[in-house]
Amino acid sequence: MGHEDGSVQARYSHVTAEMRRTLMEDLTRVWEASLGARREMSPGSPVKVLDTLLRVGQ
Description:
Elements: H1 6-12, H2 17-41, H3 48-56
């Protein structure tokens, strides 16, 4: 993190359960929005895994 004093790194480098939960919720929201935007462009895909994901949300 660019600091020689270990106390700064110790204070800001830990990750709490709440931080993980918030990150997962935010990433899930972005992922679902991106699938919705992709679905609007075309409801299917020749890529099987993407096609399945697009159809699950219908």
